[in-house]
Amino acid sequence: MITRRRPRSIAAAAAPLLLLAAVALALAAEPCAHRGALDPLYCDDNRDLIADPPKDRAKLVSPDPLIFSYVPVEDPAVYENAWSDFLKHLEKATGKRVKYFGLQNYAAQIEAMRSGRLHVAAYSTGSVPYAVNLSGAVPFAIMREPKGLSGYRVALIAAATNDKVNAVADLRGKRVAHVSQTSNSGHQAPVYFFGRMGIVPGKDYQVVFSGKHDTSALGVINGDYDAAAVADVVLDRMVNRGVIKRSDFKVIWTSPVFPTAGFVYAHTLEPRLVEKLREAFFSFSFEGTSVGREFKPRVGFMPLDYRRDWEPVLGVLEANGVVFTKESEDYKRLQKPGRE
């Protein structure tokens, strides 16, 4: 079964507050001909699946400092250092101060942009659709390699010394680490692919949400989990940093290729600032920088087409029955501590 806490029954007490919140939301939302899957706060009149800029120009913002965050990891300070050269470049291009915001989990990152406290960010592959639909995030860039768009595979790993897990079928009755409900590589893709291989997560094996890819990998090596589903690019970076060794684990299954983290900006940013942001991203070369050293073999950024590039991700989420609302059970569980 999936390990989780049992929610308390608060429906009766919360009903009046929910009604007031719904009224307030209706008043705050702008007139809209089409929203699609977007939260009522946002509009998609051009039907590109992404929130349009506010119609009321008074709602456009040009914040100083700009707040930037990267995908939540075990030690946020690691990536604050890795992004230091790019943030200096971003300050020069925009004329604004830029601060790194280290977040501990996916829900906190999504809520930070929804509330206006986060302006530019990289969301994990599976979190991008949540950020788009619930936070008004506008995907616009992705890392590229010399051959083109940067991608990753889901890797199912076990400790090298574990002779009981050598295939997906061996997961029956085991304790397996997934990352988070919104993580594509760490949850949604394994649910999709393993289920079609006859192994249903949460039914055939116990799912334990670790909260982060590196936590899952370390947990496998330390014997906390029998196996874990993680992104292979995270494993590569951990090996390159000397956090783990290739000989510590074995890869027993890999998925087709998915796009890596998507870079987004808040839909409320002033258009001139958006132009400067895009220019900053697409003019930045990784060679000889802190970013290049951390994210080899990536060499820079390239434009992202959300509808096209995230089509396989959205297909997995749709097949898994995911609904992008703050009331969904998957999203509610994201608001709990990372380790469950």
Task: Report on this structure.
This protein is an alpha/beta fold. The chain folds into two domains: 33-149 and 260-309, D-Maltodextrin-Binding Protein, domain 2 (3-Layer(aba) Sandwich), CATH 3.40.190; 152-258, D-Maltodextrin-Binding Protein, domain 2 (3-Layer(aba) Sandwich). The chain has helices at residues 11-28, 76-82, 84-94, 106-114, 128-135, 184-196, 213-221, 232-240, 271-282, 290-294, 306-309, 311-319, 329-334, and strands at residues 66-69, 98-100, 120-123, 137-145, 148-149, 151-159, 175-178, 206-209, 227-231, 249-259, 262-266, 300-303. Strands 1, 2, 3, 4, 5, 11 and 12 form a seven-stranded mixed beta sheet that branches. Helix 6 (184-196) links the parallel strand 7 (175-178) and strand 8. Helix 3 (84-94) crosses helix 9 (271-282).
Summarize the structure.
The chain has 340 residues and is an alpha/beta fold. The chain has helices at residues 11-28, 76-82, 84-94, 106-114, 128-135, 184-196, 213-221, 232-240, 271-282, 290-294, 306-309, 311-319, 329-334; strands at residues 66-69, 98-100, 120-123, 137-145, 148-149, 151-159, 175-178, 206-209, 227-231, 249-259, 262-266, 300-303.
